[in-house]
C-alpha cells in the first residue's frame, strides 16, 4: 500500500505541477505529454512486475514484483480517472465514472477467467502457474501501445480541442 501511495502522490504532483506560465493549448500540450509519460512508466512497471512474478520464483523476486505492481497502480489508476474527467463535460463526471466502472466489470471478469485458465494450463504442462503473468505482460504491452497511440497527436486522446480545460484549470489551483 505504501509503494502505491507514494508513487501516486509523486505522479500526480509531476503531472499537475506543469503549466507555470502556460495557458490554453501550451498548457494542454504539456499536461498531455506528462500524462502520457506517466502512463508509459506505469505500464512499464506492470510489465516488469509480471516478468518478475513469472521468471524470478523467489521471495526477493516476488517482493520486487509486488513493488512494481504497486508503482503501476500508483502511477496509472489515478491518471485513468483524471483522463476520464478531462474529457467529460462539467457536471457529468459521476455519470462518466459509473459508466466506465460498469464497462470495466465484464472485461475484468473475462481477463481473470482467462488468467486462471492459462495458469492451469501452464501447471499441467509442468511450468508452474506462470501463464497468467505471461498473458498479463503481453496484454499490458499491447494495451500500452494502444494507449500511447491514443495519446499521440494522431489519437483521439491527443486532440487538445476535446479537453475540458476548465476541469484541468480547477485541479491546477
Low-confidence stretches: none
Q: Care to count the β-strands?
A: 0
Mean pLDDT: 79
- Largest beta-sheet characterization: none
3D shape: elongated
Compute the separation of the termini in Å.
Answer: 28 Å
Which range does the strand content fall in? under 5%
How many structural units, i.e. domains? 1
Q: How many DSSP H or I helices?
A: 6
Gyration radius, rounded? 18 Å
Helix content: over 70%
Order of helices and strands: HHHHHH
The structural class is mainly alpha
Question: What does this 3D model show about the protein?
Answer:
The protein has 173 residues and is mainly alpha-helical. The chain has one domain (2-172). 79% of the residues lie in helices and 0% in strands. The chain has 6 helices and no strands. Helix 1 runs parallel beside helix 3 (59-86). The radius of gyration is 18 Å and the shape is elongated. It starts with a helix and ends with a helix.
Key terms:
173 residues, mainly alpha
Write the layout of secondary structure elements.
Layout: H1 2-16, H2 24-55, H3 59-86, H4 93-124, H5 131-151, H6 165-172
Helix pairs in contact: 1-2, 1-3, 2-3, 2-5, 4-5
Amino acid at each position: 500500500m505504501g509503494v502505491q501511495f507514494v508513487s501516486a502522490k509523486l505522479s500526480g504532483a509531476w503531472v499537475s505541477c506543469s503549466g507555470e506560465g502556460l495557458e490554453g493549448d501550451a498548457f494542454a500540450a504539456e499536461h498531455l505529454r506528462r500524462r502520457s509519460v506517466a502512463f508509459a512508466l506505469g505500464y512499464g512497471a506492470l510489465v516488469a512486475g509480471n516478468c518478475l512474478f513469472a521468471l524470478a520464483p523467489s521471495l526477493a523476486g516476488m517482493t520486487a514484483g509486488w513493488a512494481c505492481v504497486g508503482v503501476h497502480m500508483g502511477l496509472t489508476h489515478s491518471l485513468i480517472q483524471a483522463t476520464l474527467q478531462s474529457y467529460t463535460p462539467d457536471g457529468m463526471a459521476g455519470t462518466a465514472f459509473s459508466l466506465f466502472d460498469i464497462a470495466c466489470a465484464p472485461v475484468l471478469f473475462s481477463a481473470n477467467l482467462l488468467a486462471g485458465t492459462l495458469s492451469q494450463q501452464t501447471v499441467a504442462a509442468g511450468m508452474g502457474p506462470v501463464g497468467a503473468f505471461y498473458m498479463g505482460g503481453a496484454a499490458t504491452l499491447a494495451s500500452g501501445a494502444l494507449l500511447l497511440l491514443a495519446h499521440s497527436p494522431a489519437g483521439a486522446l491527443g486532440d487538445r480541442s476535446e479537453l475540458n480545460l476548465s476541469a484541468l484549470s480547477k485541479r491546477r489551483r
